[in-house]
Amino acid sequence: MSEPENDPLFDEKRQVQEPTGSRIPMRYLIPNVITVLAICAGLTGIRLAFENRFELAVSMVLLAAFLDGIDGRIARMMKGSTKFGAQMDSLADIVNFGVAPALVLYAYMLDQARSFGWIAALLYCIACCLRLARFNVMLDVVGKPAWQNNFFTGVPAPAGAMLVMLPVYLGFLGLAPTRPLAFAAAAYTVGVAVLMISRLPVFSGKAAGTRLRSDWVMPSFLFIVVYVAFLMSYTWETLTLTTIAFFLTFPFSARAWKRHEAADAAVANALATSTDESSSSVR
User: For the chain: N or C, fewer Cβ within 10 A?
Assistant: First the structure.
């Protein structure tokens, strides 16, 4: 969420000046209610996992990720962004994208790997916290090239939650959670944690912009309808293929990043050369 100059939800000066019981517009409250519902969904997913109701647990974690992903957008659409909401959203990300997926995966499979499985779950949670902290700090960075806004540095937390639960998807498709598979899943979990805190450039999707070409409207509608239909009918197959497809984008995003860097370096070299030539002509 963006941070306006005055926060109507938590402004100490305003609370002192205005009488108790002053009214706050609903547009400031609705995004935060969605954030709270996302936290409730994530925590409920943890409870369901410990009750061995794993399909519902994963569904609740995915619902938490969905709600956590739309609260900021709804706040911007309603012009209800606040500093309080931004901080709350960031803290909710730790629960929904870090703690909940790790504990669901641990209850489903990693517990068979004993201490190694627990260490893997801990590393993933810590990596998620570090990833979110770095993301918040990088929001204040000024002077970076505009093209860098089209990339994330490292796998973002929502995508990390989707990736780390791949062993659960495969388990629902019939792959029995055996002890050797639990050790493999633990190693995979550590690998996802490393990707989250790495410097790997990942497409952010912002390159598509906020407007869509008219000739892409109908195909986009059709793709969304077909994807949702498959997601509802073949949930775990669709999530597995989505996870694999996301992994396959990494080489393309890294290549695009290097191409932009090379273009910037070429421009910088050209400017340096022209500056040197100008200095030589003056002499």
Answer: C
Phi-psi region of 24 (alpha: psi -120 to 50; beta: other; left: phi over 0): beta
- Say whether 24 sits in a helix, a strand or coil: coil
Does the predicted TM-score (pTM) go above 0.85?
Answer: no
Phi and psi at 182, nearest 5°, equal -65, -40
Predicted pLDDT at 1: 46
Residue 157 has pLDDT above 70, yes or no: yes
Average pLDDT over residues 71-96: 80
Q: Tokens in use for 168?
A: 């659960």
Helices (H), the chain: 12-17, 26-50, 54-78, 83-93, 100-108, 114-138, 157-164, 166-172, 179-197, 217-233, 235-248, 250-282
200 backbone dihedrals φ, ψ, rounded to 5°: -65, 125
Distance CA 74, CA 34 (A): 9
Q: Tell me, what's the pLDDT at 195? A: 94
